[in-house]
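Appendix B. Raw example, untouched.
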Amino acid sequence: MDAEVVMSKMYEMFGIEGMKAFKETCKYAKEKGMIVIADAKRGDIGSTAKGYSNAYLGQTPMGEEKIEVFENIDFLTVNPYLGVDSITPFVEDCIQYGKGIFVLVKTSNPSSGELQDLKLENGKKVVKIPAFAFLYLLSLYLSTNTKESLYIL
């Protein structure tokens, strides 16, 4: 099966009209039978992370109802560098709605090593912390059979 990676930044910079085009692009790819991966690298604290997760993977409360904002997205890239609670809402929505996430651990940008390659007092690199945090979080949810929907990048 083919997949389409839709980079949200290319749409967000055009504001509301850009996000409408993002939604239409995701819909078009889904109609063509593709797996749709939203490359948005979302992750934040508490309710903000939940808001992102509602929008991209789950459902957003609107008065008495809940709506799927981006109903054609199958996977989302997420950033765990704010801690386990910054990706927990995404994992929960993956379980509830049958979606998936790709968790950033080591990125390819030239300056990524400034943080990700730092060595801690125990000799391990910072980049291992999100991986361990994600694996810990995953272990909490393994009984729900979600391991096929959660990936480390």
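End of appendix B.
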